[in-house]
C-alpha cells in the first residue's frame, strides 16, 4: 500500500510536469498543431514493409576511443549499465489492466537511469548521428500524427546498434482522461496497429499523453496488448531537469525528453538539449540503461 500511494502521487506529479513541458493548458497542444500540419500531407502515413528486428542493446563499456563524446560537447564518455542478470520485480496490474511504472525498483546503490523520448515531431539528422556515435539506448514513444511523416527517421534510430526501441504514444496525442473507453481504445490500439505494420512488432509499452490516464486507459491498454504504462520521474527541459520530487536524480528514474527542435526549445537544437541532459546525468554519477532490459 505504501508503494501504491507513492506511485499515485508520482503519477499526478508526472501529469503536471507533462502539462508544463508541452505547453498545454489554455494554449493549443503543439502535438495537435503539428499533427494537423502532417495530416495535410497525403503521403505522410505511407508505410513500407516492416524491416528486420533491431540489434541488441549497447555493452556496459561502449567503444568511444575516437572520443566521439567530445564532438557532442561532453567532457567524458557516456557510461552505460549492463543488462541485469534478472529483471527487478515490478508491481503487476490488476486483472485486465496494464501495470503502471514510473521508476524501476533497483538497489539504492545502483545508479542507473533510463532515457525516453516522446512524440516524434522533430526529425533532426544530426540527432541520428549523435545517437549512433554515443550509442544512446532510447525508448521512443511515438505519436502517429507527427511521427508518421517520416517513420524512417525513427527506424534509423532504432537500428543504429544502440538497442533503441519503438513504443506507443497514441494516434493523435489527446488527453485520454477526457475520452470514453471506446475512444481511448481506438487511440491506443490504432497506434499499435500502425506501429506493427511499419516496424514489424506490437509494442509492449505505452505512455499516455501528458501522463494522464484513468482505469479505462489501463483496461484499453491491456486489451491492445500493452503490458506496462510508462510514466517518468524527471523531465528534461531546455537546459536542466524538472523533478517529480526532490532536486536530483534517484536510482531507477525514468527520464522524459521530447523529439523537439528550435521552435519548441527556444532556439536550441535537439542535440544541444540532449548534450545538456547527458552532462547532468554524468555530473550526478549515473549510468544509462535500456528500459526494456528492466521491464
Helices and strands in order, then pairings?
Blueprint: H1 2-22, H2 30-39, H3 68-71, E1 99-101, E2 112-119, H4 125-134, E3 138-142, H5 144-147, H6 151-158, E4 165-168, H7 181-199, E5 205-206, H8 215-223, E6 228-230, E7 234-236, E8 241-243, E9 254-258, H9 270-283, E10 287-289
Parallel strand pairs: 1-6, 2-3, 2-9, 2-10, 3-4, 5-6, 7-9
Antiparallel strand pairs: 7-8
Helix pairs in contact: 7-8
Number of domains: 1
Q: Mean pLDDT score, rounded? A: 84
- Unreliable stretches (pLDDT < 50, length at least 5) are 1-65
Helical residue percent? 25-40%
Radius of gyration from the CA trace?
18 Å
Distance between the termini: 21 Å
CATH class: Alpha Beta
Main pleated-sheet profile: 7 strands, mixed
Number of strands: 10
Number of helices: 9
Quick one: CATH superfamily? Answer: Glycoside hydrolase/deacetylase
Order of helices and strands: HHHEEHEHHEHEHEEEEHE
Q: What structural class results from the helix and strand content? A: alpha/beta
Q: What fraction of residues sit in β-strands?
A: 5-15%
What does this 3D model show about the protein?
With 295 residues, the chain is α/β, with parallel strands linked by helices. It has a single domain, classed as Glycoside hydrolase/deacetylase (TIM Barrel, Alpha-Beta Barrel). Helices cover 34% and strands 13% of the residues. It is built from nine helices and ten strands. 44% of the residues are buried.
Give the key terms.
TIM Barrel, 7-stranded mixed beta sheet, 3-stranded parallel beta sheet, 9 helices, 10 strands, 34% helix, 13% strand
Amino acid at each position: 500500500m505504501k508503494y501504491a500511494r507513492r506511485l499515485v502521487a508520482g503519477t499526478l506529479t508526472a501529469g503536471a510536469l507533462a502539462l508544463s513541458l508541452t505547453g498545454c493548458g489554455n494554449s493549443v497542444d503543439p502535438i495537435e498543431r503539428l499533427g494537423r500540419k502532417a495530416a495535410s500531407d497525403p503521403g505522410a502515413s505511407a508505410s513500407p514493409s516492416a524491416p528486420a528486428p533491431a540489434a541488441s542493446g549497447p555493452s556496459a563499456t561502449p567503444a568511444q576511443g575516437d572520443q566521439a563524446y567530445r564532438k557532442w560537447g561532453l567532457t567524458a564518455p557516456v557510461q552505460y549499465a549492463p543488462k541485469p542478470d534478472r529483471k527487478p520485480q515490478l508491481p503487476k496490474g490488476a486483472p485486465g489492466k496494464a501495470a503502471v511504472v514510473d521508476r524501476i525498483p533497483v538497489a539504492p546503490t545502483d545508479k542507473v537511469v533510463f532515457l525516453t523520448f516522446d512524440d516524434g515531431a522533430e526529425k533532426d539528422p544530426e540527432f541520428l548521428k549523435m545517437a549512433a556515435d554515443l550509442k544512446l539506448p532510447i525508448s521512443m514513444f511515438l505519436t502517429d500524427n507527427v511521427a508518421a511523416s517520416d517513420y524512417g527517421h525513427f527506424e534509423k534510430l532504432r537500428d543504429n546498434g544502440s538497442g533503441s526501441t519503438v513504443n506507443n504514444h497514441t494516434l493523435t496525442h489527446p488527453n485520454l482522461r477526457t475520452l470514453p473507453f471506446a475512444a481511448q481504445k481506438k487511440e491506443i490500439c490504432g497506434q499499435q496497429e500502425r506501429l506493427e505494420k511499419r516496424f514489424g512488432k506490437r509494442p509492449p509499452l505505452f505512455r499516455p499523453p501528458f501522463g494522464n490516464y484513468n482505469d479505462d486507459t489501463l483496461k484499453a491498454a491491456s486489451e491492445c496488448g500493452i503490458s506496462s504504462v510508462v510514466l517518468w520521474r524527471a523531465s528534461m527541459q531546455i537546459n536542466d531537469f524538472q523533478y517529480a520530487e526532490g532536486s536530483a536524480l534517484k536510482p531507477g528514474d525514468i527520464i522524459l525528453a521530447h523529439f523537439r527542435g528550435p521552435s519548441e526549445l527556444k532556439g536550441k537544437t535537439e542535440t544541444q538539449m540532449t548534450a545538456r541532459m547527458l552532462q547532468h546525468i554524468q555530473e550526478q554519477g549515473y549510468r544509462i540503461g535500456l528500459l526494456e532490459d528492466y521491464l
